[in-house]
Amino acid sequence: MTREPTPFHALPAPDVLDALGSSDTGLSWAESHRRLEFAGPNELTAAKGIGIGELVVKQLRSPLIYMLFAAAVLSLVAGHGLDAIVVGAVLVLNTAIGVSQEYRAEKALEALRRLAAPRARVLRDGEAHVVPASDIVTGDVLVLETGDRVAADARLIEVSDLRVDESALTGESDTVGKRCEPVDHAAPLADRSSMVWMTTAVTDGRGKAVVVATGMDTVIGEIAGQVQSTKAEETPLQRRLAGLGAFIGFAAVGFATLVFAIGLLRGYELVKMLLFAVAAAVSAIPEGLPAVISVVLAVGVQRMAGRNAIVGRMPAVETLGSTTVICSDKTGTITRNEMTVTRLYVNRTMFRATGEGFSPEGEILDDEGRAAADPALELLLRIGATANNARLERDDEERRWLVEGNPTDGALLAVARKGGVKPWAGVNRIDEIPFSSRYKYMGTLDDVPGGAGPRLHVKGAFERVLAACDRFLIDGQEVPATDELRRQAESAAGVMASKALRVVAGAYRDLPRG
Q: Which run of H or of E encompasses 188?
């Protein structure tokens, strides 16, 4: 699939709007409907799925299976019923495992489609509306906020501390800062800071972007098209088995024909010589070879599946066994771009959190393994969950927890649930300072239940937050931030950093109302 996109990333935002026949107030409803009818829905089209019947037939089309068939039939004709049953059982097992593995592998494109956003916020006739993502057209202006998933490839026209998680496309685990200024025409995908891409997630800030490509014309659409057009090649094992099968087949038939002809010339009966020739052919075919190969490959596939590796075709196991070097990108291959809170320091005490990933299943324990019970710890967890724009959701189909938004924010939500902290009901966010690489912290001003006034919640880089604090919460009392308390906090942060942990600090301040 050849794609020659217009270099929108290298053009000034006004020129992009003019080229797409749009404006910073978006399209009209009438124009969007017209473009939707012309271009079609903003969806990743899937190739026709392969049914179970087709998968069964596909499994039967291989030299290995042909040899099994031949061995079973010839064994049956020669009167070796037990051998025929054993070979038939191996054939059925081989087909069942192959169908199961390929059916699971066929879900790859469906996983890509699930990444697409179900809804999007766009400007129509100058006003923001939430519409199905499939109705997005080129020229639409997307309104992007923290936690949103980008519905189409788009050129940014307005940003405010906007950062996007592009790990699914580029493999970069850190979020990427965005800006409106054009970038070089030859800039690679990962360096096109003036663009946002379909299926990526907004982790911080907000912005507006004009859609430049939808559906299969997007970058993720190109990947989906390549997945569909990929042709399976024969593995070295399949090629060798094809050659061996042809050689043995021709040799067995030739040998049996020769025996049959010699027997007739020496006056033996036709029927007896026919059975004798068939028996000779059966003995020449190593029925055990394809059976053993099938069983070994099936065992290999099952062992790979037990380690969460899905093998689409059984002969590929042999190719994997010949691999000496694997070149891979970290995120999505070795790691999953998931953050997990494992240590917490509060009230001069270090706690540890159990569990993995974004799952809220786990607990917070002290050094002696007892469940933590500290009001200051609860407040710290609440700060992390309140100064937060992520959403933690359970994906029942994949049986895992997912985060819409920044992975660090997702980890803070998960550990808050482990500590029994639930979001405040009726909290009203008054204002927000989005996280930025310049300030290295995020702050929210919130009306909290029962508060005498609004409360400022801040989380961010340890050094920046510590420098802004003049008090510590010790044993339920706010005390001056002495040099000794600062040294203790810095020592705890150093211990965490020495274990390759990202250190995030939390702080708060109650403000008078009015």
A: none
